[in-house]
Amino acid sequence: MSSTKSSESALKTLIESGEFLNKFNLDRKTYGLVFDKRTLIAVYEVIKKYNIDMFDFPISSGKESVVFRVLSNRKPLVIKIYKMSTLKFSNTSDYILGDYRFEREKLNRVNIVYIWARKEYTNLSEMRSAGVSVPRPLGFYKNVLLMSYIGTKKSPAPQLRYVDNADFNDIFDAVLDNMKKMYRNAGLVHADLSDYNILYYRRKIYIIDTGQSVSIKHPMAHDFLKRDVNNICSFFSRKGIKKDPDIIFKSIVDG
Ligand SMILES: Nc1ncnc2c1ncn2[C@@H]1O[C@H](COP(=O)(O)OP(=O)(O)OP(=O)(O)O)[C@@H](O)[C@H]1O
Ligand SMILES: [Mg+2]
């Protein structure tokens, strides 16, 4: 099959997945799950550039993004598409402007979504170089991000909140170790860390969803880190593992 033909069929699969509900009127302003025309074109560019030959299944469809498992040369990957219409300017600008890596960006309602996807890509790359366990970032274009897939042929790795029958002492140690590497080696704070944004696969954790992660020089970095530590401690406390958030916070920041 020629590559044009296969990318066309990938696009068809995507359209038929139900995310493009008003596919007959793509110029219209979009609501709910529907993508706008710019997003459709961006997805098409990613399909061509990265040889995506199949949209396998949707993994998650949230308020601000849609995540699909796709196949590229038979390898499973993940495409995360930020929704142009619902990614909130007010929720995102603070995480961009306070971060010296992005503070020179001129923000408007359209490009903030593109910057957000690029920021997630940059954060994944910097975390990965620092030894943090995250999906491998493979590329981005406009509001579309491509990364490695964590999970089996049939189902994506579960979020930590759905995991039973595991050694939560070991998992806690792994989460803390990754938070330390993120802070000390990458110089970053996740800023939305919880049992929702950690996947568990073959006894290993993977930290995901890093669009909002900021440099430790961000004026709010320590507030974000405290919130992350509190989320993590309260999750593990429900699993019977009681840790003092103040001590954990200090152990990350002071070493
Ligand atoms: N690389 C991946 N491999 C497997 N599953 C993934 C991957 N990335 C994301 N997911 C799944 O998709 C879900 C949503 O992804 P993510 O947390 O990055 O987006 P989100 O910003 O929380 O989405 P929303 O705001 O729309 O809820 C994750 O909770 C996870 O279940
Ligand atoms: Mg998430």
From TrEMBL:
Keyword presence, DNA-binding: no
Transmembrane segments: none
GO molecular function annotation: ATP binding; metal ion binding; protein serine/threonine kinase activity
Domain Protein kinase: 53-255
PROSITE patterns in the record: PROTEIN_KINASE_DOM
Enzyme Commission number, as recorded: 2.7.11.1
Catalytic activity from the UniProt record: L-threonyl-[protein] + ATP = O-phospho-L-threonyl-[protein] + ADP + H(+); L-seryl-[protein] + ATP = O-phospho-L-seryl-[protein] + ADP + H(+)
Source species, domain of life: Archaea
InterPro entries in the record: Kinase-like_dom_sf (IPR011009), Prot_kinase_dom (IPR000719), RIO-type_Ser/Thr_kinase (IPR051272), RIO_dom (IPR018934), RIO_kinase (IPR000687)
Record's protein name: non-specific serine/threonine protein kinase
Species, as recorded: Picrophilus torridus (strain ATCC 700027 / DSM 9790 / JCM 10055 / NBRC 100828 / KAW 2/3)
